[in-house]
Fold:
Amino acid sequence: MATKVHMEALSPTMEEGQLVSWLKAEGDDVAEGDILAEIETDKATMELVARGAGVLRKQLLAEGGTAAVGTVIGVIADPDEDIAGLVAEAGETSAAAAADEGGEAAAEDAGEASEDEAEVAAEAAKADAEKPAERKAAAETAGADRADERGGGGRVRASPLARRLAEEQGLDLRSIEGSGPGGRIVKRDIERAAEAGVAPAEAAPAAGETVKVSQMRKAIAKRLVQSIGPIPTFYLTIEADVGRLLELRKRINARLEDSGEKVSVNDLILKATAEALRRHPEVNASWQGDTIERYGSVHLGVAVAIDDGLITPVIRNAETKGVAAIGREVRELAGRARDKKLKPEEYQGATFSVSNLGMFGIQEFTAIINPPEAGILAVGTVEEKPVVVDGEVVVRPRMRVTMSCDHRVIDGAMGAQFLATLRDFLEDPMMMVM
Structure:
């Protein structure tokens, strides 16, 4: 019995996914639980597994294509099973969804895309029975119909996938013969044209670069709109003398030398933040509409820059971990974040976040709160500055830290008290153990 391959919700916030690559080709045997494809979600690249066994008869979504959660993107069936109805049904569903979400224009494009997919599948299923002469006649008829359409100044008919492929390869659609319904240009026509060397499209005036948006960048944009608009945010900044913190780091690394491990300034900042949050649970909280949730544990989100944007792996129960353990966990999670291999539970559920741009020489900045958290720290670089100590001007290492606060949860005095505790820990780390 045939099994539909759906675009699954592979992360809690996923609404659509991009197919990075098919790991099974059409015609490959598939066992239940086999990995079919790699899907880029809003946070990571995840594996899509087979929910049935048989042969991967049809791929309905091309690599690089995007589909909403629940969309049928493939069919698994027995080698001789008739799947034409399933393929056609998948195409009709895609068109209906597009009409609901995007109106008549979106429905037209989605319908063309589904016709492309359904037509290719139907043709493959009857290829053995169709005579070469009949195929040639059909193509000639389609070409004539399309010539009439173009002669009247009409728009070149092509599926959205064909248009995208033609644009990527610099091909002029007007010079390509289509073999789809009514002479529509479909994917295989672009592939044939590319192999045959069809004339490239006329060069358009230079207009910079249009970059395709990744699923992660879409999620970031959505979250930022949710944050900066609805959340009443204010900012508090402190400057700390981190001379003793730097000395402590040297002593810790000397102890860790034999193990090959090292702790960073950021690891110490994370430890100090976790301790300050433990002592100020009113800051380790979130707005819940008509209540405020104060958390019993500190799950610290650590902002990590990757190629597609930003992700915040979570150090769970950070207040219970030593600085060396925090450092190990941050490096391990950051490495997998850059490889897009994080599991959803490893980047969801933070209660407070820290973003450090000090390594890029940024002196001071403000970070945007990640809902539903009530605050985020923005950490700047360590600078040697002249300051007055005991009536004398001396040069000391100084660092600026700015907290973005959700005013529904954190008042000014409350935030100031938290930052005062944090500054105490940064300036005299021994206070963390008192």
About this structure: Confidence is low (pLDDT under 50) at residues 97-153, 203-207. The CA atoms of residues 29 and 55 lie 4 Å apart.
